[in-house]
Model the fold of this input.
Amino acid sequence: QDAVNLCRHANTTGYSVTLALWNGPSESASTIMAGYQQTLNEIVTRHLDARLAIKLPGLNYDKTRLGVLLEIARAGGVGLQFDAHAIDTFEKTFDLVQWARARYDRVGCTLPSRWRRSLACAELLIDLHVAVRVVKGQWKDPTAADLDCRAHFLEIVEALAGRAVHVSVATH
Done:
């Protein structure tokens, strides 16, 4: 409820919001799914200018569950933002971003500037016509200890500028 209230306030000042659930490692996919459905329903019934961020590892990368969320989102005109989460989970996430984009046009993907691969992924997301959210990111790329994430952040934004469907920027 606090998030909904903050979202409503942000909307009155002209800001759109991305709502996200932070699930614990012991929460079941069913519990996480219920939380996502409840959040989507709140966005739709309260007419909020918001999208829902989804962490696919919590749903066990289940296409059936994701399909249900896509249907709710489509019916309510709500965008879905797929969080990159951790570098070792991104391949599965990216596969489902492509799968979701083929079924719904209001799909976005988050790219962390701490990952060397994010610049190449930005090009792929441009081609898919997927909205991109650029963040500093929570976890470093273990193969890129020398990466200047601030400079890389700006490189990613520069690559997306004028070419991506939509770009938003944020940081942790």
